[in-house]
Amino acid sequence: MDTDFHHRLASVAGEIEAMLVTIFDVATDPPVPPRLMAAMRYAVLGGGKRLRPFLVFETARLLKGEEETALRAGAAIELIHAYSLVHDDLPSMDDDDLRRGKPTVHRAFDEATAVLVGDALQTLAFETLADPATSGDAAIRARLIALLARAAGAAGMAGGQMLDLEAEGRFAGGVPVDLDAGAIRQLQAMKTGALLAGAVEMGATIGRADAERYQALQAYGRALGAAFQIADDILDVEASSAELGKATGKDAGRGKGTLVGLWGVAQARVELGRLVAEALAPLAVFGSEADILRAAARFTAERRS
Q1: Stated pTM of the model
Q2: Among 73, 114, 187, 247, which residue is least crowded by beta carbons within 10 Å?
Q3: Which residues in the chain show pLDDT less than 70?
Q4: Cα dist. 62→13, 50, 78, 292 in Å?
């Protein structure tokens, strides 16, 4: 399954890359300013595992949903993810110089361009979902827009980023705020988990899942999102910058609220294993047809980058 999974992940990533190029190549009137388009392409193309669009696509495929709809929805969620990375790297946020092994957008271009790139990628995501080319069913398009907006917005990713900044002490004179496990879980469920869980729900929507299957996939997505962040925090402690393609060891220095920081790596690994089991359990309703999603949960915990 490991070989099959990695082959499938790479295959879907290639299809998503092609869809993103197609979206960028659409002519507009007036045209997008060349510098902005170049920076948008730089931020999105040629890098990343494309795990979020993979979850959209494979969840939809499990339910025999329309592949073209899944590819376009997957491209939209990748545009949102890329925008969040561009803004997260800015000097006013995490102030990072390296992303996916190359200079961050504000370093490769400039800070003002990076702000506009994030803005443009975010709006392009919703334009993509609203396009009838994504689905002939307006209700499906509306539901996908609502799911992505909720996952990315003030009660999701953006709100989680605010909680993260508060935990660093940005608004308390630079003194990090001590968070308990419950507060850390809430922060991470919003900042990181919401978009991963949203990807699964988008796939379930495209596949027109019934209530039982939708709830099972929703539970899977939430547990997988929580597992992903713990794995990421462990990597920040244990992996090298070369492996991750970005700076490591920065969470502790900033006083970020993480379960690794609260408990240590050993106990965090126990929690990671528990969350993977929690993600796998609701997939029983699908039998062996959900093996690719099971492999995605294990990959989330075992990845080295």
Answers
A1: 0.94
A2: 247
A3: 1, 239-255
A4: 17, 18, 20, 9
